[in-house]
Design a protein that fits this description.
This protein has about 750 residues and is mainly alpha-helical. It is built from 34 helices and ten strands. The chain folds into two domains: about 1-255, Rossmann fold, CATH 3.40.50.300; about 355-515 and about 545-705, no CATH class. It has a six-stranded mixed β-sheet with strand order 2-3-1-4-5-7, sandwiched between helices. It has a two-stranded antiparallel sheet with strand order 6-8. A two-stranded antiparallel ribbon has the order 9-10. α24 packs across α30 and α27 (about 585-600) packs across α28 (about 610-620). The longest helix is centred in the last third of the chain and has 35 residues, at about 535-570. The radius of gyration is 30 Å and the shape is elongated. Bound molecules: guanosine-5'-diphosphate and magnesium ion (MG). Guanosine-5'-diphosphate binds near residues 7, 12, 117 and 143.
């Protein structure tokens, strides 16, 4: 026995699938997360039932990979029953797909999902109307709350043993006779589900036209005999219209509204959307939300209490509490150095994590014999390198948590919608923004997610731009630099500006490429915006746990391997059989000194420690965290005693150089894993092009950043410039948007 779950994106298929099969597939709001078909088993019936989670679709046409996958599965693999999930809070829109599924000769059960929301908003759905009209069973469920699932499966099981013949809602429309005669033709060639194929052929569905050339010719002829209507022979539009018309005629009254409180509840989401997806304020609000997150994670002066009100903390106990036991005293006067402002939660956790790992390493080191090569390898190499990364772990997890909350609440789907609206005139579709936004997590799954884009060129371009959306592995680099740059610029503003720089460059690059490649019309991007809801604690924790596991796995394998390699190269000369040497005589210094000239124009390789930053950008290819590990490892060796890595960094790079270094690392080649994914997912000819794009693009942008930084002699000015440019961009967007206001709304 095999049942298939079919429905619109965000109708709750994955939630239902997980509830039925006990699998732990990721539940997210992205249409397209489930491009691959997922299977599981339901065991609570008298026989085991295979459940297949089909990708979310709005229609059974062959335009998107999801549609093709779902359509082929239903037609070719003939599940015993289709469970059509319908989001009951969005009934009319969801039934559009239902009307198509019903045309196939297969048992169907309609699962009215999200009934908890419907009920709590005081509405009621007359499911008997649905059952009578469509002549299939309807079961009310709540996948999220595990309600009605047993009944659904019982009904589906019973239904699976019946044969069902396709039914169309188009039987009363103008071309009903055309459908009837085409269906007869289909029957004569013995095809299954003749009704479905007939309607699709009349719609000029490309797959059907190819498959049934002869019948198609006959249909074309018959069409000319039907009087023209408002659709002027555009049968695709006429069919779609016929379906919608039928739905609104029959089911507009199906949802019974409770006059009073009901309506309020229903429109709560709409009300939030009035603000959050506002035509003009949508993007600024997105930026503000992002900034609040960075402030919360990276600021060492929460609420700008120090900047605005001069708040200082002079109590040693409190200082030790806030910065993880690190209160310092002035060397000359012996006075306590006050803490400027209160650190944000992220910085607070980072300080304590640094204290914890530092203490553990000290403790461990006290048991190791001094001066042996293996003490050097373990303590100065591996542990120092890992420590530098692990101390940023709380901040990274906090950042991921915030992004996961945005994702799970339904906000990220809106961001794609807002971006789509602002940039579609330039040929950028919201569909491409979804994988790009996923890039904030990790480029690898983000690149895989570009599978949802139909156009090959668009896919290649999106993949090339994915690394510009700063991934989680790059976050430790920004966190480390934020600590170094803090002298003149607040860390949160710095990190925020780096993320923004990535987004802005990606958008500008995409627009430029589109303009020069004669952009064609972007197909309208239709996406269902899921109702906002409180993020599920379980989902958030599962998400973080995945990230943590991935991080630990990476740290214990490739990152450690890279650290050992760097240790070897920095402790041996080219005549390595002669034993350990001082770092000045090591192979790595020679390598770094060659690399340094390549990076010379970008500034960061100019100082005494320039070779270290040059080497670090290269180790970043292995994993971006290695940039941090390498710097910690090498700076820790060459820095003056007692100097922390952060201080050494601050001492050896100017703010402009730090910015240029950040820009270079943001835009250059991602890690090997992402490069391999790029090769696998993009077209053949795109591979060398994309590599060249990353190589050249990062160099040029970093150069510009450095030159601008130099010109103003201070990176804070650069930050202001970036912000102004952004404000200008926002105003421009607002202008464009209001100019096109009268254009049809996309969703
Ligand atoms: P899919 O795209 O069809 O796989 O949909 P998902 O399973 O990812 O669900 C989309 C969103 O709707 C998720 O955030 C779910 O938590 C939520 N959701 C699913 N079923 C229900 C339900 O019965 N009630 C409520 N309130 N939310 C639900
Ligand atoms: Mg899903």
């Amino acid at each position: 026995m095999r049942f298939a779950l079919a429905g619109n994106p965000n109708s709750g298929k994955t939630t239902l699938f997980n509830a039925l099969t006990g699998a732990t597939a990721h539940v997210g709001n992205w249409p397209g997360v489930t491009v691959e078909k997922k299977e599981g088993t339901y065991k609570k019936l008298s026989e085991k039932v295979q459940i297949v989670d089909l990708p979310g679709i709005y229609s059974l046409s062959p335009y998107t990979p999801e549609e093709v996958v779902s359509r082929n599965f239903i037609l070719d693999e003939k599940p015993d029953c289709i469970i059509n999930i319908v989001d009951a809070t969005n009934l009319e829109r969801n039934l559009y797909l239902t009307t198509q599924i019903l045309e196939i000769d297969v048992p169907v059960v309609i699962a009215l999902n999200m009934m908890d929301l419907v009920k709590s908003s005081g509405r009621e759905i007359r499911k008997e109307d649905l059952e009578k009209t469509f002549n299939v069973p309807v079961v009310e469920i709540s996948a999220l709350r595990n309600e009605g699932l047993k009944e659904l499966m019982d009904v589906a099981y019973k239904e699976a043993s019946n044969k069902r013949v396709g039914f169309t809602v188009l039987e009363n429309c103008k071309f009903a006779s055309l459908i009837e005669s085409t269906k007869k033709e289909m029957e004569t060639i013995g095809i299954e589900s003749p009704l479905f194929h007939a309607v699709k052929l009349i719609e000029n569905d490309s797959v059907e036209m190819e498959m049934h050339e002869e019948i198609a010719k006959g249909v074309e002829k018959l069409k000319t005999q039907i009087p023209q209507d408002e659709f002027e022979g555009d049968y695709e539009a006429a069919v779609a219209d016929g379906r919608y018309r039928y739905i609104s005629e029959h089911f507009a009254g199906t949802v019974k509204k409770d006059e009073n409180e009901g309506q309020l509840q229903v429109t709560k989401s709409d009300k939030i959307d009035k603000v959050l997806t506002h035509r003009i304020w949508g993007i600024p609000l997105f930026l503000i939300i992002m900034f609040v997150i960075f402030h919360f994670v990276f600021s060492s002066d929460i609420l700008f209490l120090n900047r605005l009100f001069g708040l200082e903390i002079n109590n040693e106990g409190w200082i030790n509490f806030f910065i993880g036991m690190g209160a310092e005293f002035d060397e000359v006067t012996g006075e306590l150095i006050a803490l400027e402002g209160i650190p944000s939660l992220g910085v607070f956790l980072q300080s304590w994590m640094g204290w914890l790992t530092g203490s553990l390493i000290d403790l461990f080191a006290s048991f190791m014999p001094e001066g042996t090569w293996y003490t050097g390898l373990v303590c100065d190499g591996i542990l120092t390198g890992l420590d530098s990364i692990f101390s940023f772990l709380p901040q990274i997890l906090l950042l991921f948590l915030c992004i996961a909350i945005l994702e799970d609440s339904g906000y990220m789907a809106r961001v794609a919608f807002i971006m789509d609206r602002a940039f579609r005139k330039f040929g950028l579709s919201g569909k491409a923004f979804i994988p790009l936004l996923m890039g904030f997590g990790c480029s690898v799954p983000a690149m895989v997610a570009t599978k949802t884009l139909e156009d090959e060129k668009e896919r290649d371009l999106t993949i090339a731009l994915t690394p510009f959306f700063s991934c989680g592995a790059k976050a430790p680099i920004w966190a480390m630099l934020a600590f170094a740059i803090v002298g003149s610029l607040l860390g949160d503003i710095f990190v925020f500006s780096i993320y923004l720089l990535g987004i802005v460059v990606a958008i500008v690059a995409a627009i430029l490429i589109k303009v020069f490649s004669k952009a064609h019309e972007v197909p309208p991007f239709i996406m269902e915006l899921p109702a906002y809801h409180r993020p599920q604690f379980k989902n958030l924790m599962a998400n973080l746990w995945e990230k943590l596991k991935h991080f630990i796995y990476k740290a214990s394998t490739i990152i450690t391997a890279a650290i050992i390699l760097i240790w070897f190269l920095s402790n041996f000369s080219w005549a390595f059989w002669q034993g350990l040497v001082e770092i000045e005589d090591s192979m790595l210094v020679d390598i770094g000194n060659v690399l340094k000239y390549f990076f010379y124009p970008l500034g960061f390789s100019q100082g005494e420690h320039g070779w270290i930053y040059s080497v670090a950008t290269v180790t970043g290819l292995i994993a971006k965290e290695d940039v941090v590990a390498t710097i910690a490892q090498l700076l820790g060796t060459v820095a003056e005693d007692e100097e922390t890595v952060g201080l050494a960094l601050m001492g050896s790079l100017s703010n402009a150089q730090i910015y240029a270094f950040a820009a270079y690392n943001l835009f250059t080649f991602p890690c090997f894993a992402a490069i391999a994914t790029m090769k696998a997912e993009s077209s053949k000819k795109a591979f060398p092009k994309t590599l060249a794009f990353w190589f050249g693009g990062s160099y040029v942008i970093s150069l510009v950043v450095y030159l601008v930084g130099l010109a103003f002699q201070a990176a804070i000015v650069l930050g202001i410039v970036v912000l102004h440019a952004l404000i200008a961009a926002i105003v421009l967007c607002g202008y464009f948007v209001s100019k096109h206001r009268n254009k049809a709304k996309v969703a």
